Amino acid sequence: MVASDSDHHKPPVEDTKFHLNIKTPSSKSHIPIEIDKNDTVLKLKEKIHDIDQNNVPLNKVMLHSTGTELHDNQLLRDCEFSEKNEIEVSFKPPMPTAPAVVSGGGGASKKLKLMVLPKSGTKKIPVEMNASDNVGELRKELQRLNQMLQLHLPQDGYFFIYKQNVMDDDKSFRWHHVSQGDTIEIFNGSVTGGS
């Protein structure tokens, strides 16, 4: 018995094409796609992308068949499909742009640790303030500390100087660009308008 050549050389055109039923997050029903078994998963993603118009970058698209993720470089003929040839499409969540800062002290990381230098003294006073606090809050904090620690604050009024600029009590530390660990000086007297 001699096998005829036709058994060995059947044209491969017909039997490599097959249909997949694609389920995307945006479509309520399955989308039928015809594709070649010799195509890669990436090629399938491109086809889905063209049909679905989801504006999601290809590298964020994930395909699953029978619960298994399909990888871009796999050939479709090597993938396992369910009886209905269903493919689930999902999208990877966007990566956070900056790593989340884990605060151990319930927001304590937002506090600015500042040093206040009285005009008369050489000893700096450590205080903690929120960056969003107005400078006037520092005055209240110093008065509170003064009762406990006898800071010898000027009796006739005083104002704050930061980097040789007078600080506005009604503006926040953030507005004054005060940073962690900075020193604020106390000057006797009061600030007169228009100076």
Automatic annotation (TrEMBL):
GO CC term (a single one): cytosol
Gene Ontology BP terms: proteasome-mediated ubiquitin-dependent protein catabolic process
Start and end residues of each Ubiquitin-like domain: 18-96, 112-193
GO MF annotation terms: polyubiquitin modification-dependent protein binding; proteasome binding; ubiquitin binding
Domain of life: Eukaryota
UniProt cross-references to Gene3D superfamilies, sorted A to Z: Phosphatidylinositol 3-kinase Catalytic Subunit, Chain A, domain 1
One Pfam family hit: ubiquitin
Name listed for the protein in its UniProt record: Putative ubiquitin
Protein species of origin: Trifolium pratense (Red clover)
